[in-house]
Design a protein that fits this description.
This protein is mostly beta strands and 416 residues long. It is built from six helices and 28 strands.
């Protein structure tokens, strides 16, 4: 969907909802209005400064108290929309200049309580992503607008003294590894949604000749890990045997980490943990920043298109900061992940990724494994009828999960 924003017509309105429920337009008393969504934060943050003038006989500092609700409404001439809403959590009066009193305010949306709360949660094997995530929302009284996220079966997962925001992110990350869509959790107008990244219908374009004021693009291998060595229990002389070596992008040199296998742990689990290190730290990091005139509706997780400097294509917004005073915004971006197109041509052999899909009924003649990397070989089946429940990256040795019994190699299954 195409849309344009005329920055010359862009206006912002700050609304305060007092403890009594009365709505006040405090725009004229406000300055330094801004709102942002950080990459490592679940909740949206709103910040502004208010002049402590009288409103209806009361000082604003007595009306804009912790617990009061604030909302920012953007108007761009052709339409208007609420772009941020939160509850005041921080209130800081101060004196500026010759007797002119102001106070600073910070507000956060409905996800802030989850970001600040720890809990112990236990999920039995087979618990679905949707049930786990919506259960947290319901327990904390967070209204749900919609859940368009993944719903895959998780392994037995205990969380101890973990922040709820971390639990939610880990559940979504685990679902993505099992073939689910990569999703974002965010609140809007008082309700929370779980939606796929880049699912916004309106995609804004940024071009260096028109509306991109600054771009920064940095690739770094400073923190890259290219090898993980799995070592076992030390002997009487303190030496630990090397039980496995998992290599990554060793063309960048050997940058090694050690994964110690606990005495009561299996080698398969230790190797899986080593692979997790490579999954997280085994790729060069890329930092992309784009500054532009404000498009107040853009949220973290939205897809944008950019052609400026080294940028040329579609990107997902990792974080975004809006500044009402300068009518500008700063986005941190990551390239949109695009699935490789299926190969064509009658002479080409069928690739595994085009042979089987989630939901296919198959016949299994072979072993099952504990993970998609081929670790933890389990029972071997003959002519077992089953269904593919999860499909992940087909570059892995065992990219298909069947009937909850395990991961399988492509050459051990045939279509039923």
């Amino acid at each position: 969907m195409e849309a344009t924003i005329d920055i010359r017509k862009l206006k912002y309105k700050l609304i305060l909802v007092t403890a009594s429920g009365k709505q006040l337009d405090v725009t004229q008393a406000a300055e330094s209005i801004g709102w942002e969504e950080g990459d490592a934060e679940l909740a949206q943050r709103i910040g502004f400064t208010l002049h402590n003038t009288k409103y209806g006989g009361s000082q604003l500092s007595s009306l804009a108290q912790p617990g009061s609700i604030v909302a920012i409404i953007a108007d761009w001439g052709t339409s208007s929309e609420e772009v941020a809403r939160g509850t005041i959590e921080e209130w800081e009066p101060g004196h500026v200049g010759s007797g002119s009193t102001t106070f600073d305010v910070l507000a956060y949306d409905e996800l802030f309580n989850l970001q600040q709360s720890q809990d112990n949660r236990y999920y039995s094997a087979g618990t679905g992503t949707k049930a786990a995530i919506t259960g947290i929302f319901n327990d904390w009284g967070v209204p749900i607008e919609k859940y368009d996220g993944p719903d895959v079966a998780h392994a037995k997962t205990p969380f101890k003294n973990e922040y709820l925001s971390n639990i939610l992110i880990q559940l979504l990350d685990d679902a993505a590894k099992k073939g689910g869509a990569k999703c974002i959790i965010r609140a809007s107008k008082g309700k929370v949604s779980v939606i796929p990244k880049g699912s916004n219908k309106t995609i804004y374009h940024f071009d260096e000749d028109t509306n991109a004021t600054l771009t920064r693009d940095k690739i770094s291998t400073v923190d890259l890990v290219t090898r993980v060595k799995v070592v076992g229990k030390e002997d009487s002389e303190g030496r630990q045997p090397v039980e496995a070596v998992i290599d990554g992008l060793t063309q960048h040199g050997i940058r090694q980490r050690i994964q110690n296998r606990a005495e009561d742990d299996t080698l398969a689990n230790a190797k899986s943990a080593a692979q997790e290190i490579l999954d997280v730290q085994g790729k060069p990091t890329r930092t992309i920043v784009l500054e532009a005139p404000d498009v107040p509706m853009i949220r973290k997780g939205d897809k944008i298109h950019a052609k400026a400097g080294t940028l040329n294509g579609y990107y997902i917004t990792k974080s975004v900061r809006h500044d009402a005073a300068s009518r500008s915004m700063t986005m941190e971006l990551e390239p949109e992940e695009v699935s490789a197109p299926a190969q064509s041509g009658a002479a080409a052999p069928a690739a595994a990724s085009t042979t089987f899909n989630k939901g296919d009924s198959v016949i299994l003649n072979g072993a099952v494994y504990s993970d998609s990397y081929g670790n933890g070989k389990g029972k071997t089946f003959t002519n077992r009828s089953c269904k593919i429940t999860i499909k992940v990256d087909t570059a892995r040795p065992c990219p298909y999960h069947v009937d909850g019994i395990g991961w399988v190699k492509p050459n051990t299954i045939t279509k039923a």
